[in-house]
Automatic annotation (TrEMBL):
Gene: tolR
Transmembrane segments: 21-43
Name assigned to this protein: Tol-Pal system protein TolR
Function statement: Part of the Tol-Pal system, which plays a role in outer membrane invagination during cell division and is important for maintaining outer membrane integrity.
Main location: membrane
UniProt keyword terms in alphabetical order: Cell cycle, Cell division, Cell inner membrane, Cell membrane, Membrane, Transmembrane, Transmembrane helix
Source organism phylogeny: Bacteria, Pseudomonadati, Pseudomonadota, Gammaproteobacteria, Lysobacterales
Subunit structure: The Tol-Pal system is composed of five core proteins: the inner membrane proteins TolA, TolQ and TolR, the periplasmic protein TolB and the outer membrane protein Pal. They form a network linking the inner and outer membranes and the peptidoglycan layer.
Amino acid sequence: MQNLRTRKRRKLKAEINVVPYIDVMLVLLIIFMVTAPLLNLGVDIQLPQSAAKSIQNDKEPVVISVDQEGAYFLTLGAAKRDPIDSEALVKKVSAFVRENPQVPVLVAGDQRADYGKIYQAMVLLQSAGVPKVGLMSQPLQASGAR
């Protein structure tokens, strides 16, 4: 009888004991539940302060305006604002800057204008031989400032 017992072997279990994994998972869940409300979701950053002042220049600037639809307008000195296409813009600004090399050249874009059109205006001015281009902006009103 004893020979039968020694010969009879237990079958091996091919199951994974998941109880320790569940315990670890519950401990981690509790840790994350306690620490999550303590995390600061915002990041404090220091933005650079600008001391930009308006441009003071004796000469009237050349102003290239871009409207909401992406159309270009040119104002040469004290002349009135005229609609212009890109080829004529390059020719006129190039000739004007050659005669007046110290004249400031500014780009004014409508707030709703596509940035690509404003960038394209700056590229056109570069191809016209303008060495330095400024961007125009409106100062924030005190009531509408955020």
